[in-house]
Amino acid sequence: GTDAGTTSLPGGKLSFTVAVTEPDITAVPVLAAADAVRRQGHDVKIVELAEPELAIEGLAQGDYAISAEATGPALSAIDQGAPIKIIADVVANQWAVYGKPGTGSCTDLRGRPFGIFSEGAVATAMSKDWVRATCRGATPDYLTIGGSDVRAQALAAGEIDATPLEISDAVALESTGRADRVTKVADFAKTLPDVHPQTVYANADFLTEHREVSQAFVTALVREHARINASANHLVRLVHRYLPDEDPEDVPRIAARYRSRKLFDAAALTPHNVQRTIDFFARADVIDPGLKAKDAADLSFVREAAS
Amino acid sequence: MTRLNARLPYQILTFALFAAAWELYARARGGLLLPGFFETLRATGALLAEPELWRALYVSNQALVLGFAIALALGIPLGILLGRFRTLERYADVWLNILLVTPMAAIIPLLVMWTGIGLTSRTALVTVFSIVMVIVNSRAGVRQVDPSLIEMARSFGAREREIFTRVLLPGALPAVMTGVRLGLGRAVTGMVIVELLMISDGVGGLILEYRGLLKAPPLYATIVIILAEALLLISAARWCERRLTHWSRTTATRANLAGSPK
Amino acid sequence: MSALRRLPAAPLSLAAGAMVWEVIGRAAGVSFFPPLSTVLDRLGEMAADGALLASVRDSLLNLLLGTAISLVAGIVIGVAMGRSRRVEAALGVYVYALLTAPSLVFAPVFFSLFGAGRGAVVAVIVMYAVFVVIVNTAAAVQAVPAHLEEMARSYGAGERQLLPRVVLPAATPMIMAGVRLGVGRAVTGMLNGEMFIAVVGLGHIVTEAGGSFDSASVLAVLLIVIAVALVAIALVQAADRRLTRWVPQTAKGAQGK
Amino acid sequence: MIEIHGLSKTFTDRRGDTVTALDDARLDVAENEFLTLLGPSGCGKTTLLKCIAGLVPYDSGTIEIDGRPIQGPGPDRAMVFQNFALLPWASVVDNVAFGLRLRGVARAEREERARELVATMGLAGFEKKLPGELSGGMQQRVGIARALAVQPQVLLMDEPFGAVDEQTRRLLQEELLALWEEQRPTVVFVTHSMEEAVLLGDRVALMSARPGRVAELVPVDLPRPRARGGGPDRSGVYAELTAYLWDRLREMHEEHRTVRTGAPA
Amino acid sequence: MIEIHGLSKTFTDRRGDTVTALDDARLDVAENEFLTLLGPSGCGKTTLLKCIAGLVPYDSGTIEIDGRPIQGPGPDRAMVFQNFALLPWASVVDNVAFGLRLRGVARAEREERARELVATMGLAGFEKKLPGELSGGMQQRVGIARALAVQPQVLLMDEPFGAVDEQTRRLLQEELLALWEEQRPTVVFVTHSMEEAVLLGDRVALMSARPGRVAELVPVDLPRPRARGGGPDRSGVYAELTAYLWDRLREMHEEHRTVRTGAPA
Ligand SMILES: Nc1ncnc2c1ncn2[C@@H]1O[C@H](COP(=O)(O)OP(=O)(O)OP(=O)(O)O)[C@@H](O)[C@H]1O
Ligand SMILES: Nc1ncnc2c1ncn2[C@@H]1O[C@H](COP(=O)(O)OP(=O)(O)OP(=O)(O)O)[C@@H](O)[C@H]1O
Ligand SMILES: [Mg+2]
Ligand SMILES: [Mg+2]
Prior knowledge:
The complex is a heteropentamer, with one copy of chain A (about 300 residues), one copy of chain B (about 260 residues), one copy of chain C (about 260 residues) and two copies of chain D (about 260 residues). Chain A has about 300 residues and is of the alpha/beta class. Chain A has helices at about 30-40, 50-60, 70-80, 120-135, 150-155, 165-180, 190, 205-210, 210-230, 230-240, 250-260, 270-285, 295, 300-305; strands at about 5-10, 15-20, 45-50, 65-70, 85-90, 95-100, 115, 140-145, 160-165, 185, 200-205. In chain A, strand 7, helix 4 (about 120-135) and strand 8 (about 140-145) form a beta-alpha-beta unit. The longest helix of chain A has 20 residues, at about 210-230. Chain C is globular. Chain C is mainly α and about 260 residues long. Chain C has eleven helices and no strands. In chain C, about 80% of the residues lie in helices and about 0% in strands. Chain D has about 260 residues and is α/β, with parallel strands linked by helices. Chain D has a domain at about 1-75 and about 150-260: Rossmann fold. Chain D is about 35% helix and about 25% strand. Chain D has eight helices and ten strands. Chain D has helices at about 45-55, 90-95, 100, 105-120, 135-150, 165-185, 195-200, 235-255; strands at about 1-10, 20-30, 35-40, 60-65, 70, 75-80, 155-160, 185-190, 205-210, 215-220. In chain D, strand 9 and strand 10 (about 215-220) form a beta hairpin. At the B-E interface, loops of B face loops of E. The complex binds adenosine-5'-triphosphate (2 copies) and magnesium ion (2 copies). One adenosine-5'-triphosphate (ATP) sits at the interface of chains D and E.
């Protein structure tokens, strides 16, 4: 797959690839940013992949220049010496634990089935962290359920008592008329605001060799986020353009919720919260302790874009 | 034994080629997701010492054993029935084809709805994964039975049930056993897939974990161990096959392949 | 029974299934199992869109390529394994290992070999389909009646003539069973390849819809996939019937009285 | 005992062509009779036997046994098949015991009976062999033993001694006659040997080809036991009868055959 | 022409038991000779023929044809199989043309030759039928036609006329002799009929069972064409020879058989 690598075009323009993993609403600003760079004359290819691991593999090999998805695997790769740097935020921590009606706190879940994604997934780590912090020894019965839609359905069907969900999952669940069957138990956006589960990352060589293009991309992303924060309708428009198959009824509601909670801020990354994110993943055993924020992230682009 | 010895050099040769190709490719092109052969070998050794692996295997294999047993118990008679009764076959064929091609990911939500996310749905999925192979090959096997044997059995007063057990089943057995081998392979796949997509308590959980952590060597070690199990089961099926269908060596070409006239 | 026999079986059987689906779908009233009518409506919408058509075309091309490669490679390797103990010894383990290995294993390998393009999807299709064909072909070839091979050799048939004149015809019923399974697997492989490596074609639609709990869309795509598969397998079975007309019938109800 | 009237059977092949194997055939076989059946190759002998056995659906006509129309195969009849039809996965003993097993005879008893018959057939020592490990003549004898094992009232034998040597054939003929004297089954016995037809039969039925029907019934008025010379010599009556059969069959043959005859000398 | 020395062949079955089919067998067949082979069922006739055909690997001994040891099957030899071995998917014509096809004879030519032979065998009208649609005797004749079609130097025939009626057998015998006079192949012909052995053979080889070997070679000093009466009558020399063969075979039989003899009358 070397044909996907970055190449220079005549006229100082560039041909490179942005890889996205099963793009959902949170990824459309990234796609819009890619379009913005394309409008500057660069040839930006978009590849849709099934697993974040594949995107990271491609990044590490230099086949792809930029990707955006789960932070955990990226940190794992960086920890293993892959030439990858985190450069911006995709969306702030949007996870929350939803449970059966009547589930008030963690202690209600003692010994009850609690659906998690696999070990190493950020939602799993956050859930376990939450259980450790608030349950005082009462642990639920963890059930690993791979697919997020299966998990949501299992919750709705009463097969599990609680599970962490993203905003879009939660809204989708509500819109299927099952909202009354679940209740929010904990909101990680509030308890773990410094953890950034989804970030934009790039091939390190690409960043050093093509600073301007990288900067243009990050700047465009920051601008897209700003526009969304100005009006949720912008997000709705973007979704309509990039994800035409998305259920049109849910999108405005999801968009409004993202905006009201100010989750979109590509420039939100700081050395501090990157380090907190790293520490969080180290605590969760996803990576070994000792990774430094400055080695994992290059925040110069977001600083430049914000100024 | 002599046969074993005759085969061994070829097996060693291809294994060496395979290992070398793997190692070289991994070194040249491998990245985070593609470990080298020796790395994987080491990780396999380490993983085998982990009690967690054995627990995971124990959990996963419950679904495998139950699911595959059901696949055999239903699939073989059903395949023979389809081979025997034309009308039934014509009506059931479409559904067999649908069962064959429906991506299992799509029916998992339905399964969850009906049977929850416990052992039942995992078992059901393993069955669904493997049963088509058994049915289709059993049916093909029945078609190979010499019809004059059915005639003969009928002339001695065999009822339909006895024609099944005394003529069709033994006659179709070589083909059935081919289906069993294929089915076993699919059942093991099913065992893993169901965990990747649904309840990842066993080996599927390990895979998800190692993949999520980008730990390629133990990830591939897990897969190697699963495949080793599958191969073990398939050789066991082969062994049974040879015992059950030794007669076919008096009628099939297989026996003659070893030597030709001097 | 005899009345049943004269009716067109497959459509009738499908219609009955469709009815059951509709009834259960309505009765259950759950969003993840919509009745058939809802799914068909959605299918209509998607078709009107035009994007679906392009996806289907793309997927079909992948399928065609993958199936062709699988059948040719599967039969060639299967025959080699069936005829030669050495080849069987050399390849057997890998065939069964790859038959079993979940596609997840191939994903990174194909990804690094072919990138995320058509190549990877075709490779996944081949991986899904080829081993079933190999295993059945090998078994079929080994079960060829010895007296026929003996006869042919007595007339001076060498391996090159033995294969087309005796071995393959005699093995056809079992090979065709394998081809049927293989084609079915290829269709699954097509969808999964498009879902698990590169998200394109029909796989794209399923992934998208699955992520947003849009069961109707998922099932609509599945209907297309199944339709494609049924057509493909119907072709295989038609070929089978032509090729194995000579097989004396063990089935009841095959002839008149 | 067996009454066959107007029996017709036409085969339609895969291309829709038809072959009339039996056309308005009629035949009566008396209780305990030993009937031998002679006829040119392809005239419908096997088809007729299978019809009596209840194995082949016929187009028209009736077959009655003891006054009752046959309803498929029954435990009263057993057949020796021209192509042996042995189960390739079952040992000689198991093949011979097959019919007994279907009748629910206990294992020990059926094995004993099977072993005895295997020995009678000259196959002692081959009990555990599979059909694929036997010579053609041995396979044929296994098929005979299987039919004899169930002691049927009607024994349908389709060229049962065609693949064995003369000596064995003689011994088997003696065995068969001894059994027939003892158990008195009704026997319909297809053969191509006129000597055999005369030696064994109470009557000889001559079948003609296309239309396949019983053209003539020749009674064999010779007392039993019918002495046979130690060698191929035959008494006058024998010779006379076989010569008659020979002529009749040759006439039929000449009517129907398209064989490019060399000098028939 | 065919020289066989010290030929031994032991079959080992799945349980490790052995059956010695041929034990130090020796046989010479002269160029253009018509040799008939008689022997008790299971004595190793088929095995011997298959060894000559190069189909069965033997344990020890040599088989030379024209002074050269055989290397597997060759286009110089063709065999008629006891169990016919017809391709069930091929029509009668295609089965007969099978050997020609392997030899690269053009389609039109091989079909013509096949059709001619099919007619000679009395199967005109059955050209397009499949083996499963033929009677036993018809199938056997297809197998004979297939071997004759390739006009081999050595013709190995394993009970080729066992399943056909006497009249057809006679016609086929004439056909075979005519062909033999014309093309002069070397023929090894297994039969159970002593009359046939004497009628056709230049010499008759008698095989004994266990050990399977050629016990005696009986020359048939009768001029050809050997007249045969229109019926079953036989001239004195015939009777004498067949009687001799009969006695010899019975002796062998009595040595080896364990058949529970009824009264051999
Ligand atoms: N299954 C079949 N399909 C089509 N035709 C058949 C079938 N079985 C028999 N026939 C035809 O029916 C006719 C009679 O066949 P049958 O086997 O009864 O002859 P037969 O008298 O037993 O001959 P033989 O002495 O050669 O065994 C033949 O012409 C044969 O071609
Ligand atoms: N494939 C085999 N496996 C084991 N034993 C065999 C095999 N083929 C033949 N035999 C044995 O070898 C001996 C000779 O068999 P063969 O077929 O040569 O006899 P034959 O003289 O042709 O007899 P028939 O006249 O009955 O055809 C028999 O005892 C038989 O059991
Ligand atoms: Mg017949
Ligand atoms: Mg023989």
